[in-house]
Specification:
The chain has about 140 residues and is of the alpha+beta class. Helix content is about 50%, strand content about 15%. The chain contains seven helices and four strands; from the N terminus they run αααααββαββα. Keywords: Membrane, Transmembrane, Transmembrane helix.
């Protein structure tokens, strides 16, 4: 086997692998990186109407100077002992209570499906705001 046929075989294998991975890759991840609420004003108004109480509370929290750059938040019941999860180890944190919002877990699941929030740790009830979503809330 000569060097030229070996090089051509190698390049054909690399090209075939690249083409194979391109067609099998999940392109939906790139589409979810920009939240839908930013793309479409009609959708943003609809989202605001559906989740108004929760979004207003989130908006008020993110407009406070001490929480301006916070992106993590927790979902808890009012009777739970916060120290069991170590929530105050790193200073103040944002917490939304299940009792204050009707169907809070389902609302957060809907926001997560739109790519606006991310579940960080389901066991702790820890979530994270998307950066563009946080900016949208502060501007609204």
């Amino acid at each position: 086997m000569d060097v030229l046929s070996l090089a051509i075989g190698f390049l054909a294998g690399v090209a075939g692998t690249y083409i194979f991975r391109f067609f099998l890759s999940d392109n939906t991840q790139t589409q979810k990186s920009t939240p839908a609420v930013i793309k479409n004003d009609v959708l943003s108004e609809q989202l605001w109407r559906i989740h108004e109480k929760l979004l207003k509370e989130m908006q008020q929290d993110l407009r406070k100077p001490e929480f301006q750059f916070h992106r993590e938040f927790f979902v808890e019941k009012k009777g739970w002992n916060w120290n069991r999860l170590g929530l105050h180890r790193h200073g103040p944190c944002l917490v939304y209570f299940i009792e204050d919002h009707i169907d809070l877990p389902q609302q957060l699941d809907a926001l997560a499906r739109e790519g606006l929030v991310t579940k960080v740790d389901e066991k702790k009830g820890q979530f994270q705001f998307g950066e563009k979503f946080a900016e949208w809330l502060r501007r609204k």
